[in-house]
Write a structure and sequence with these properties.
Elements lengths: L3 E8 L13 H11 L2 E7 L3 H4 L7 H15 L10 E6 L2 H14 L9 E7 L13 H5 L2 H4 L6 H7 L4 H11 L12 E7 L25 H4 L4 E7 L3 E7 L2 E7 L3 E8 L4 E5 L25 H12 L3 H21 L2 E4 L7 E4 L3 E10 L7 E7 L14 E6 L6 E7 H5 L4 E3 L2 E4 L8 E8 L5 E2 L3 E6 H7 L4 E9 L2 E2 L27
Parallel strand pairs: 1-2, 1-3, 3-4, 4-5, 5-10, 6-22, 13-22
Antiparallel strand pairs: 6-9, 7-8, 11-12, 13-16, 14-19, 15-16, 17-18, 19-21, 20-23
Helix pairs in contact: 3-4, 4-8
Length: 510
């Protein structure tokens, strides 16, 4: 019987200098697929030798180089009429996604993509909280990044809320589901949520962050995201009291809901007991060559199931299967208890988390870089009504200062049951927020050109729309840019007079 030919292309993550990062995965898959009746051709596209060291190299540069590598290596007679399966790790995921979007998804004239399956292991699709630490600190984290000085160009993309990440992911969210299938590609995300305590960095809590694999959050790996657009109402004239006197003013208090777009259903599998990297728990590197390696059996099995998908029906079925299996894994891993010989046990609660990236611009397209964003809850939209422990982390992007990323404990936000261990209550049950809202206090708040505060009242609807477990929501907030008429006037007559002491005045450009 003629064996089916399959081409495997491995694209590793960031700051890798040796193919041992793949562990035994290539050989293991080759053996497993051969036994299943497939003739496997394994090809390494080794890009890491330059992307990690030079600041001028950016993620889109790597995807362009990958396109050339594909044309140079995979268009020979050997690979004719065979679409390749790409298996990536970490930053390799967004690299190949950028390539696919750039050359095929958004370029219909390019024809069918030569890649049929994209299987991403622990991909930093929405970035990593570690990226903001900077080159110097990351290069010292040898357990994660191989001790290699990383390039700033790639780091800028990986930082949470980066312009590159927003562009790629909003493009994906807005795309049509028809791009998943035999005429497009089959995308998959497989990631862990376990922390390898043996290589935990005590100086950096992100390496032990709940809801992550020590480098990438589950919510940041998952492609099943959404985009919400909010827009401030047009300014209206009102009155306010200043020194016991009512004066005219402009007001635009309402932040209005415009739209919500959900990404196509995308397969996500959470693998038990796996961290981002490392020989013992790393989702890729820990895989052994031998087929009797039980510690990575779930990882290998999931990858094989992804490879075998041949149509949309099978894809949807596997996505549902992964969702059910991931739910079981997260329930089993909810409480991690570490025993100590002379001290009491240490308990780590692994709740489900949600990530929300807020971007604030004005209606003229300018970024609003100076603002306070206040979350609210309860019937009176009160910040004090948010449940204790709901908030895990907040990062403002260092380059795009109008973008800020919040990391929510989803289970605390919606309410969590009591958690026990050996009859001991580790955490009492929580009620949850019930509602979610937000206020924006932008600056400048006065002058010839300024902004007005606004809010969207706390509601159950916004809570349910914005927060989903294990996923990311992009919230695009558009404020009104208030320009006063005195910015530009045409005076009657020819008499010249100074205007350096002109004040903004009360009238604005509408």
């Amino acid at each position: 019987m003629t064996k089916q030919k399959i081409v495997l292309v491995f694209v590793h993550g960031w700051s890798v200098t040796n193919t041992d990062t793949y562990g035994g995965l290539p050989e293991r898959l080759k053996a497993e697929l051969f036994a299943a009746g497939m003739d496997v051709l394994v090809k390494d596209i080794f890009l890491g030798r330059y992307i990690s060291f030079h600041d001028e190299v950016r993620l889109p540069d790597i995807s362009r180089a990958f396109d050339t590598a594909v044309k140079d290596e995979l268009t020979t007679q050997t690979f004719q009429n065979i679409r390749f399966v790409c298996i990536t790790h970490s930053t390799g995921g967004p690299v190949i996604r950028d390539w696919w979007h750039r050359y095929y998804l958004n370029s219909p004239k390019s024809g069918k993509c030569p890649m049929s399956h994209l299987i991403m292991l622990a991909p930093a699709n929405y970035g990593s909280a570690l990226a903001q630490l900077g080159k110097g600190r990351l290069s010292r984290m040898k357990s994660w990044f191989g001790g290699v000085e990383p390039g700033q160009g790639v780091l800028d993309w990986l930082e949470l809320g980066s312009e590159g990440s927003w562009g790629l992911n909003s493009d994906w969210i807005s795309t049509e589901e028809k791009h998943i299938g035999v005429n497009g590609i089959f995308p998959f995300v497989l990631t862990g949520q376990s922390i390898d305590r043996a290589i935990y960095d005590n100086l950096n809590t992100y390496t032990g962050e709940s809801g992550s694999d020590g480098v990438v959050r589950v919510a940041a790996a998952n492609l099943q995201g959404r985009l919400i657009r909010l827009q401030q109402q047009k300014p209206i004239k009102g009155k306010k009291k200043i020194r016991n006197k009512m004066v005219d003013c402009w007001d635009a208090p309402e932040l209005q809901f415009i739209s919500r777009t959900e990404a196509p259903v995308t397969a996500l599998g959470v693998i038990a007991g796996k961290s981002h990297s490392g020989k013992d728990m790393g989702i890729m590197r820990s895989v052994k060559k031998g087929t009797n390696d039980k510690s990575s059996q779930q990882t290998v099995k999931a990858i094989l199931e992804c490879i075998k998908v041949s149509n949309k029906s099978e894809y949807n079925k596997l996505a549902t299967q992964f969702e059910q299996e991931s739910s079981k894994v997260q329930k089993l891993e909810r409480l991690e208890s570490v025993k100590h010989l002379l001290f009491s046990d240490t308990h780590f609660i692994h709740d489900r988390y949600s990530m929300v990236v807020f971007r604030v611009t004005d209606h003229e397209g300018y970024p609003v870089k100076d603002f306070d964003l206040i979350l609210t809850a309860g019937v009176n939209s009160d910040p004090n009504m948010l449940p204790q422990g709901f908030f895990k982390d907040k990062q403002r992007n260092s380059v795009s200062r109008n973008t800020i990323t919040y990391y929510f404990n989803y289970d605390i936000m919606i309410g969590s049951g009591e958690i026990k261990h050996d009859g001991e209550i580790i955490r009492k049950g929580t009620v949850g927020a019930q509602r979610l809202g937000l206020k924006i206090l932008p600056r400048p708040s006065e002058g010839f050109v300024h902004y007005l505060p606004c809010e969207i009242s706390a509601s159950q609807e916004l809570l349910e729309r914005a927060l989903k477990p294990n996923s990311t929501t992009l919230i695009d907030i558009c404020l009104r840019r208030v320009v006063h008429k005195n910015v530009m006037r045409l005076d009657k007559g020819t008499a010249q007079k100074p205007f350096n002491k002109t004040k903004p005045g009360e009238e604005i450009v509408q």
